[in-house]
Amino acid sequence: MKLYAIAITGIIAIQSVAATGGNNFTRRCSRLLETFKAPNTNVLWSGYTSKGTNVTYPNLHPTCGQNWVVAQANMCRLSLNVTTSSTSNVIMEVWMPEDWETSGKRFAMTGNGGVGGCFALGDLAFTTSLGFTTVGHNNGHDGLSAAPFLNRPEVIKDFAWRATLIATQVGKAATNFFYQTPLAKSYYWGCSGGGRQGMKIAQDFPEEYDGIIAANPAADFHRLIAGALYFGYQTGPPTYPTWLSFEQWLAVDAEVLAQCDTIDGVADLVLEDPLRCHPRFESMLCGQLETWTTHRCLTAAQVSAVEKIYSPVYGNKGRFVAPAFQPGNDQVFGFYLVYGAPSDLGVEYIRYAVKNDATWNLPGTVDEFLEIMDDLLDHDPYKVSANNPNLTPLKTSGHKLLVYHGTSDGYYSHENTIRLYENTAKNMTLKAKQLDDFYRLFPISGLHHCNKGNGAWYFGGPSQHGLGISGVDPNDSLIMKMVRWVENGEAPDTVRGHHIDPITGKPTGAVRDHCRHPFKNTYKGSGDPLSPESWECRLGTKYP
Ligand SMILES: *[C@@H]1O[C@H](CO)[C@@H](O)[C@H](O)[C@H]1NC(C)=O
Ligand SMILES: *[C@@H]1O[C@H](CO)[C@@H](O)[C@H](O)[C@H]1NC(C)=O
Ligand SMILES: *[C@@H]1O[C@H](CO)[C@@H](O)[C@H](O)[C@H]1NC(C)=O
Ligand SMILES: *[C@@H]1O[C@H](CO)[C@@H](O)[C@H](O)[C@H]1NC(C)=O
Ligand SMILES: *[C@@H]1O[C@H](CO)[C@@H](O)[C@H](O)[C@H]1NC(C)=O
């Protein structure tokens, strides 16, 4: 930790330099171009931006998708280029709202997704609207692909942890400098790859944030890659007898629901606890002379592939490599199916970051592939994984970690996140009751990977903004729950989610209070299942 701090010590000194421009917010903002100095930092642009402005990024990498967002607050926008080594740099934006001083003097950092370097523009706009200074950054490279990692170890290091740390430190320095008053509290929030970044902070740099929200964290990063690629080995390409069409996968999901939806007492297309679902697929086998076309059944080869995918993956020496594919994934088969080929994310990551060979391709057999996975799990190159169970420094700091994970995640099973929690309990010899002081995990039923789903999935979490959803009070958002935990000591026992109509983007009225692990949300046996009053958080394994 101390080692990394050396690079930024000079920042403290410049805080005493007065910003010029008097009290005029607009003038002080545009003058940041000349006045703001930090080590290794180039100011690219600064300027006042009023609420309602369509902020556009014409140079954003095309794989990042939407390159604009509407500002939701009057603010000062500062764009920076920070050199992180002689061969790497981070591009970052600091959004500083006009009402910051009367809104709690808070600082927020947003995360990135996948292996990517795309700004979470919706999240950036959202916390700025709540009065937080908010930072977004490109994680050291542009776009969603791992290709920029080829021959650039320093860029991989930025992706693994350094970009988030440096953007944090420069962002805080810019905030303190611009307002000429120290920020009060700092918050991190990110989903998926951004969840991994959050866990990394909790494990290695807990002093940086008072509150950390890590959502669907792809923390055990190599197990994410392993699961993604293993899936492809079992189905093969579309010409193989083990391949299933998308329609056939939908039938598999329907079979899972038929077997497991009512385990929790309510048939609602949502598995409250998928870990209790152990589907059997021989029920889908075609009989003599039956085919998919005539009877919507599967061949024995297909059923075998499905069984393997819904089972845990073990390496050649018996080591646990990845959990079973999440049952009740709500028709989201992640990156596995979209390509009709192995996951791009997995192949590109190994090709560019691990093998550093643009011509590398997946080996022909699953055993050779598992050997690579064993090696990655042994060595964790660049320390990309955020699976250190020892959160003693976080506990000592008094800072808070709120983790949640959708249980319909067709990319990365929430089982990974529960395993990490249990490993922490054992490593620190702390019971859940004691972990509750600083680390709370909420499995969210019916939430996919970050957003959407059949359940009550919306609570204003990271990556849930910018989707055109309206009708839920921003004061009820998760980040404000975190603020109340950090600043008022009101620890959240549940997370209230709203189901959202996918067409209108408005709440349907279905609400659930998701329980924290190890409690299970349990239907009381009567009452409207769409109302939170009909459920309670219970310990134990039996539903009524
Ligand atoms: C602040 O400065 C801007 C630009 O220099 C100017 O347009 C504006 O009128 C000033 N506002 C006040 C309240 O003085
Ligand atoms: C913002 O600008 C972009 C790029 O010009 C445009 O595509 C988008 O529709 C605009 N959004 C709004 C809400 O005006
Ligand atoms: C950022 O700085 C690096 C040097 O560290 C430079 O190579 C790069 O072109 C700069 N990027 C921008 C957008 O200014
Ligand atoms: C806890 O985790 C740390 C870091 O991974 C490890 O060094 C230590 O041996 C673990 N302690 C126990 C009791 O498992
Ligand atoms: C949120 O709470 C703040 C402070 O309590 C209040 O000023 C603001 O109007 C609230 N916002 C909404 C949308 O209710």
From TrEMBL:
<keyword id="KW-0378">Hydrolase</keyword>
<keyword id="KW-0858">Xylan degradation</keyword>
<keyword id="KW-0624">Polysaccharide degradation</keyword>
<dbReference type="InterPro" id="IPR029058">
    <property type="entry name" value="AB_hydrolase_fold"/>
</dbReference>
<comment type="similarity">
    <text>Belongs to the tannase family.</text>
</comment>
<dbReference type="GO" id="GO:0046872">
    <property type="term" value="F:metal ion binding"/>
</dbReference>
<keyword id="KW-1015">Disulfide bond</keyword>
<dbReference type="GO" id="GO:0045493">
    <property type="term" value="P:xylan catabolic process"/>
</dbReference>
<dbReference type="GO" id="GO:0030600">
    <property type="term" value="F:feruloyl esterase activity"/>
</dbReference>
<keyword id="KW-0119">Carbohydrate metabolism</keyword>
<dbReference type="InterPro" id="IPR011118">
    <property type="entry name" value="Tannase/feruloyl_esterase"/>
</dbReference>
<keyword id="KW-0719">Serine esterase</keyword>
<dbReference type="Pfam" id="PF07519">
    <property type="entry name" value="Tannase"/>
</dbReference>
<keyword id="KW-0732">Signal</keyword>
<protein>
    <recommendedName>
        <fullName>Carboxylic ester hydrolase</fullName>
        <ecNumber>3.1.1.-</ecNumber>
    </recommendedName>
</protein>
<feature type="signal peptide">
    <location>
        <begin position="1"/>
        <end position="19"/>
    </location>
</feature>
<keyword id="KW-0479">Metal-binding</keyword>
<keyword id="KW-0106">Calcium</keyword>
